[in-house]
Amino acid sequence: GDCFPCAKEGCPMMGHHADKFPYKLERVDQKYFLNTAADEPFATWRQKVFIRLSGVKKTKGDINLVFYDTQGHTKKYEIANGDLSQDEVYTKFLDVEINPKNTTKIEFLWNKAVFSLLWARLGAETVNIIHGEDGHR
């Protein structure tokens, strides 16, 4: 918590996704940011999400997860977008900003990209989230 506030181009990260901060080599005495949990396992904030869809065979749109915590905070993460299919498992690593210990609910959202007169339903057959150094689900 000592590295805030961040510069206007964002908090330069160490480790995963550090390459997303193009200005990190242009500044002198740069401070870096590493998102961890407060106690062991420190890697709980890095989560790997697996989603298998149910419903329509193929459609266009995006799938998201929304995390809720005990203090009323919410954070939405896009998992996939474009052509979606039941035949695929959508996998993504997330650096979740909601403390896993305080998470009360994780909501699955699907948004259609194209309006259709046909009623199309899409859901999550399974949503698995793995976090922490020991891979808890």
What's this entry about, in short?
Helices cover 0% and strands 45% of the residues. The chain is mostly beta strands.
Textual characterization of the structure:
The chain is mainly β and 137 residues long. The protein has a domain at 45-131: PLAT/LH2 domain (Lipoxygenase-1), CATH 2.60.60.20. The chain is 0% helix and 45% strand. The chain has strands at 46-55, 58-69, 74-85, 89-95, 103-112, 122-131. Strands 4-1-6 form a 3-stranded antiparallel β-sheet, with no helix packed on it. It has a 3-stranded antiparallel β-sheet with strand order 3-2-5, with no helix packed on it. It starts with 45 loop residues before the first strand and ends in a 6-residue tail after the last strand. The mean pLDDT is 76.
Largest beta sheet, briefly?
3 strands, antiparallel
Report helical residue fraction. under 10%
Q: Low-confidence stretches at least 5 residues in length (pLDDT < 50)?
A: none
- In DSSP terms, counting alpha (H) and pi (I) runs of 4 or more, how many helices? 0
CATH class (first level) name of the domain at 45-131: Mainly Beta
Distance N terminus to C terminus?
A: 27 Å
The proportion of residues in beta strands is 35-45%
**From the alpha-carbon coordinates, what is the Rg to the nearest angstrom?**
18 Å
Pfam family, one: Lipase
GO molecular function: lipase activity
Domain Lipase: 1-42
Protein name: LIPR2 protein
SSE layout and pairing:
Elements: E1 46-55, E2 58-69, E3 74-85, E4 89-95, E5 103-112, E6 122-131
Antiparallel strand pairs: 1-4, 1-6, 2-3, 2-5
InterPro entries: AB_hydrolase_fold (IPR029058), Lipase (IPR013818), PLAT/LH2_dom_sf (IPR036392)
Domain Lipase: 1-42
Pfam families: Lipase (PF00151)
